[in-house]
Amino acid sequence: MTTTSTTPAKRHWWSDTLFKRLLLLMWAALVASHLCAFFVVRSFEHWPEAPGGLGLPPVMPALPPGALPGIGPGAMPHSGPGGPQGERATAPPLDAHGGEPPMPAGERPQQSGFDTMRPPIEPGGMGPARGLPAIALWIDYAVRWLVIGIAAWFGARWLALPMARLAAASAALAGSLGRRAPAPAPLDEQRGTLEVQRTAAVFNAMADQLRGEFEVQNLLLAAISHDLRTPLARLRLRLEELGPPGARCVADVHEMDRLIASVLEMMRNAHEQAPRQRVDLRALVQAAVDDLADRGEPVRLADADPLPAAIVIAQGAALERVLANLIGNALRYGGSADVALDVRDGRVQVRVDDHGPGIPAGQLESVFRPFYRVEGSRSRETAGSGLGLYIARDLAERNGATLTLANRPEGGLRATLELPLA
Description:
Layout: H1 18-43, H2 113-117, H3 134-177, H4 194-241, H5 247-271, E1 277-280, H6 281-294, E2 299-301, E3 311-314, H7 316-334, E4 337-344, E5 347-353, H8 388-398, E6 402-407, E7 413-420
Parallel strand pairs: 2-4
Antiparallel strand pairs: 1-3, 4-5, 5-7, 6-7
Helix pairs in contact: 1-3, 3-4, 4-5, 6-7, 7-8
């Protein structure tokens, strides 16, 4: 058995950690969203100015020459308040088209009050603040949310990927411990953040230890069970030669032999990997009941005319053993067995009822444990190995079925096997 070292690597300030990944992700998302929004808004500087913006509207519309008295080509500015001696509001003369005449060379235009309020525009500058259309603000917010959402989506996948690998490895390990699938490949201990690497190392070590312990346990049980059968057979032959004095000893040997057979069956089921296929459960139930009835056992099909069709995907031999175990228990502890098959909502149920004393409610799950016996419910003639229900549930779960027990109100025990239809 190999052992994987779990000594953590030395931590450095540049180590790749989940904290640093989260910090980098949030920082990059915010910076990217602001940069994108900035460039989008910047592109709107070339759009027409929105009504009601910060731009100044014209004071009065342009008028043709002669529309007002004293206005026209060569007209002189009029006097303001106080007549010619007072301060005058001057205006440049207009040309024949109502516009300003060309500026003489060497002169600078006078600035109005509004012009002096505007800052000068440097070559290549952005110019004064202007009003933006309402859609620009909506696009600004949309771009920010879009960038942050995309970054969060990819970031979540990026950060959740190590957990997905760990979950898949755990599921594969759980199956391999029961010998239902090959042993999974170990996790890469050099991949991912420091926390992920440490988790992978611990998981690999745990998987190796569990597989080793299961292998030793299975080999030990199989070896003991197999090797005991030969001396028990010799002992049984010698006791049978003694006649009546050895009858009770022979019964003990038979009980031990049944126990060994159950253990070997359990080990065989653990290693069995037969493929699943389409199975007619109705035919299996009918065959199991008919076979026992032909041998004179008190077993019958309830509401059996006719049985509904029930095709499932399972191992046929495994389902046969489950049905034989459940019906056998009902006959052994309840005296008779009533079997029913019901199909509804895409699932099929096989119910096996008996008329025995039932099982205390607190022990309905305990009886599925290996070698568990309900005290006072078994005599020497009906004693079992304590492995029957454990094997039955194990086989059922391997085929995607559930197996439960419940006490019936009218008395007796009901075992229910449920599977999905194909």
